[in-house]
Amino acid sequence: MTIKDLKATFRKERLAARDLISEETRTEFSLAIAEHGGDAFDFEPGTIISGFLPIRSEADIRPLMARLKARGARLCLPVVLDKMTIVFRELATGVELVDTGFGTRGPGPEAAVLDPEILLVPLSAFDRNGHRIGYGAGHYDRAIARLMQKGREPRLVGIAFDCQEVAEVPTEPHDVRLQAILTESGYRQF
């Protein structure tokens, strides 16, 4: 079995486990994520933090993003431009959200494009060493690579539920480790 096959298997299994979490429990877990993550990491006011709006059975991190904004963060959301590229558009009060691809919503083209310093990253699976498996399209891998090419070193915080953890994620040369993971049971740094 190849690394890609192993990742696909983990992705399918962990997303199926996440899908089994009831909506009520997912809401409770999402609020716990906000509680654990609201003050978990330091940043200066004005720091650009990328969040995301939930799709499918992902954690709803809007309460977490509200707490980070209250602490002075400048928020943005990922927007799919084409099958290969995402950019991060500023999420400002009163900005209308539009369909942005892959079932997501975000600020429209009039919003400023920002380079986040901290990325809250959705994922399919993760391990205790900070390795992650995304959804398979490579959007975040390419976005992180572009930020690094610009001389940026974004802090990567994975967002998941405990049921998405696996013993060991198989890695490839392009994979970038998370610095931390935030789940309903707490914030862990790697």
UniProtKB/TrEMBL annotation:
Positions of substrate binding: L53, E58
Alphabetized GO MF terms: 5-formyltetrahydrofolate cyclo-ligase activity; ATP binding; metal ion binding
Cross-referenced InterPro entries: FTHF_cligase (IPR002698), FTHF_cligase-like_sf (IPR024185), NagB/RpiA_transferase-like (IPR037171)
SUPFAM superfamilies the record matches: NagB/RpiA/CoA transferase-like (SSF100950)
Positions of ATP binding: K7, A8, T9, F10, R11, R132, I133, G134, Y135, G136, A137, G138, H139, Y140
Top-level lineage group: Bacteria
An example Gene Ontology biological process: folic acid-containing compound biosynthetic process
EC number: 6.3.3.2
Principal EC category: ligase
Cofactor(s) the protein needs: Mg(2+)
Catalytic activity: (6S)-5-formyl-5,6,7,8-tetrahydrofolate + ATP = (6R)-5,10-methenyltetrahydrofolate + ADP + phosphate
Keyword set includes S-adenosyl-L-methionine: no
UniProt keyword list: ATP-binding, Ligase, Magnesium, Metal-binding, Nucleotide-binding
Family recorded in the similarity comment: Belongs to the 5-formyltetrahydrofolate cyclo-ligase family.
Name of the protein described by the UniProt record: 5-formyltetrahydrofolate cyclo-ligase
Originating species: Rhizobium terricola
